[in-house]
Amino acid sequence: MVFITLLLLSLSLASASHFFGSVVTFTAKSDAHGKYMVEIRSRATYDHGCNHHYATCHRGECGHNVQIEQGQVDNNAVTMTYNSNWCETETIVTKALTSDRPFQIRDHSCCWVWLSPGHTPYWSILTSVDLGRRSDTDKANSSPDTAILPLLRIPQNCRRAYRPLTFDPDGDQFPARPVDPPAPSCVEGEYLPMFVPPTPRHGQVLWAEVGVEVEITVRAEAKYSVVDNLIMSGPLNVSKHRRSGDEFSITYTPQHQNLGQYFSICFAVEFTDRDAVYQTEMRCVLLNVTEGLAQVNTVVTCLESAIIVEVEKATLPQLRYDHLRLSDPSNTVCSLQTHSNSTHVVANVPLNACGTQIQEDDDYLLFKNEITTVDDPSAIITRRHQVEIKFFCQYAKRGNVSLSFSAHRENVTVWDRGFGSFTYGFEFFPDSQFVSRIDPWSYPLEYDVGQRIYMEIQATTTVNNTEMFVESCSAAPYDNPNYHNPYVLIQNGCNVDSTLVVYPSMKEEEFRFSIEAFKFIGLHQKVYIGCSVLMCEAGNPNTRCSRGCLPRGAHRRRRAAAIETGVHYVSQGPVRLRTANTSDLNLNLVFVSGCAVLAVGMICGVLLYRTRQKSSHEYTLLSSEEN
């Protein structure tokens, strides 16, 4: 067996010593002179300190060490592992060999697990390396790889299934159970946290390009426990980073020497409730390191309220430039045609529009977007991208800041066949008179729980005899129309929230309503309101506007362009809920109480460029639980 793994199988960590276990893998390497080379990776977990172990030659010709690299993968200095701390390290040894004949390396020491009185808890790891050329692939043999987290938590009363990721680059076919005290409930999403999108699926293969950072977004949630930490296992130099609330990111940048290799990354999120610690299931993904693709000459300029991106057309593949778009092109200010010229594709991207995503940590705000291609600009989906150019700007949250960035969402201008160009405005008002809107620079707005929030959606169009219809409205802690679990206010034209009040208006293009302020359960301090709206020919009984509330859902017929538009999404916010003690507010949310950014010290965007035109990989639909 060319792959040896030692896993902790005791029912309790109370008697475990400082060494938990190790995983060893090897990959054949070659150099320009045709010598035999091998890279051996030893990943180990310890209970006291971040140690490293070294394997020595046990049998055969083991060659000599050319390079040794060591580092820490992950640790948890505050974990509640029965008053123990753990640390995972990796040692990478590159060996030069005289031949491809098999050899063995071995490491052994004290101490592991005391299984019985008088038992000496020595451990031993034996790795057999065989680099012989395979008859099926005509390549040197490589070891299989498996991935598992250094620490797995299971309440005594809950069944959990673990699926360690196993992979063999040659195509060959071939758990740990520390137990925690009982949990009040074994239903995932209550005390035991559960993964939610956009967390990747278990076993998902991710493509990683040499020299380009791979970022994996991980999110989990639970009703009655509080997010605490993400633990992970992966290759040396992988790193983790906590974003706002319940979201984490895992990043890794493969180097040239990693080309053609596969790396597994496993992760779980830990939540706490008093002294108890609960984990999500363990998920593992596989990174396939490929050659870096063509570079696009691009300049990213980070302004106080916008991002300017200039892409040199000569460095792009042959394509139709009118098929390029930002993440959300529905607003006319997001059109790439407005500022582009004969030599450059130019995007002027507002920080709060065009699908720009906002992320944060204690010190920075991160605004991310991308330029992609679509097969048909009028289509709403695509199954391939010829080009993906990702960019971002990072701003410091502290210091002498400029208040140029407003949290207030600007009007949305759209174009629709038969109705031309028209604009939606979504505003908050101080009372039911709807006389003057609340100043946009006072956003985010603050309300007490139960206080009434007054809102108005208004359409402006040059087309006469039109009416506006609000088909749905919902609230979410993020400004995302695809948020997985929003609180529904209006659905299929029907009022759902019991506190919702709709007010009469003299104009057919206005919709005025109010609700009582509420707070999402958990750490979310802010709420966004988003609505799906459309315009119709007034008085026409065949339009969606005329059919009004449809409790069982609206049957979307093929629309006639002259009588109604498509559905458009508009949103506004955030609003913040006051608490009794403002000192208890999560300081990570400081950006929504001022949305201040620094005009200096900005980090311009890192660009990723991929060409998918010749790719043989296909997209598949996710299961309902992953969507």
From TrEMBL:
Keywords: Disulfide bond, Membrane, Signal, Transmembrane, Transmembrane helix
Record field: transmembrane: 587-609
Signal peptide range: 1-16
All copies of domain ZP, residue ranges: 301-552
Keyword Disulfide bond: yes
Superkingdom of this protein's organism: Eukaryota
Name listed for the protein in its UniProt record: ZP domain-containing protein
